[in-house]
Amino acid sequence: MKIDDLFSVSGKIVLVTGGSRGIGEMIAAGFLANGAKVYISSRKADACDATAKRLMETYGGECVPIAADLSGLEGATALADELKQRETKLDVLINNAGQAWGAPFEEFPEKGWDRVLNVNVKGPFFVIQQLMPLLEAAASADDPARIINIGSIDGLRPPKLQTYSYSPSKAAIHAMTRQLAAEFAPRNVIVNAIAPGPFPTWMLSTGVGGGGDVDNTDWDSLALTNPRGRVGTPEDIAGLSIFLASRAGAYTVGEIITCDGGVVVG
């Protein structure tokens, strides 16, 4: 019943898709800092390599980059094949890779639907499908394998931005989480989702006027709209992810847990 036992992820093998920046990088850092071996994937190989190097320089441990476009079956299969060459099991899968698209209603393009739904819904499904043999190889009744899907509070309430395909995609990943949770729990694979609120990321910066410049975005103004009076930090999202992946979270199944400072209930 000690903290070190309840929340330990030391020695676990973890994959964080979309781990080269933003929330994915924050989650990867948390696992790496606590003794896990972490794989991160990204469409851009250079960015993925640079993040893996930076994380290891900061936290030590082993962070392995894998370039992958996870918008469909082909990319998911390639990622799984690469991982199977390196590992015989996978303890934790974090489906974080995501896409958003913003445009006025009258101008919103079809490709803004196709790309977002492919990356945010179809991609995670096939990543899970292709990695299930590795997850089941790691799974036991005492220590189940874990799948953590990264949704969004925009999948729980109307979004503030004109991102018409993003909100439905996140509602879909929440629904898929519950369906797979019911199916996989008897196989000792636990599925949950996290629905983040505002975090200082490239994606959110592009929507709130920062143009993708995370460091120079006015996060203080955004924080004034949050009941907690701030945006999220790496400790917030990494801590929740580690809980779900540790012994402490082994009886939590099929939940959509907000990490938003109270936006949904505010």
UniProtKB/TrEMBL annotation:
Keyword DNA-binding: no
Keywords assigned by UniProt, alphabetized: NADP, Oxidoreductase
One Pfam family per UniProt: adh_short_C2
Keyword Oxidoreductase: yes
Highest taxon above the source species: Bacteria
GO molecular function: oxidoreductase activity
Matching InterPro entries: NAD(P)-bd_dom_sf (IPR036291), SDR_fam (IPR002347), Sec_Metab_Biosynth_SDR (IPR052178)
UniProt similarity note: Belongs to the short-chain dehydrogenases/reductases (SDR) family.
Protein name (database record): NAD(P)-dependent dehydrogenase (Short-subunit alcohol dehydrogenase family)
Gene source species: Ilumatobacter fluminis
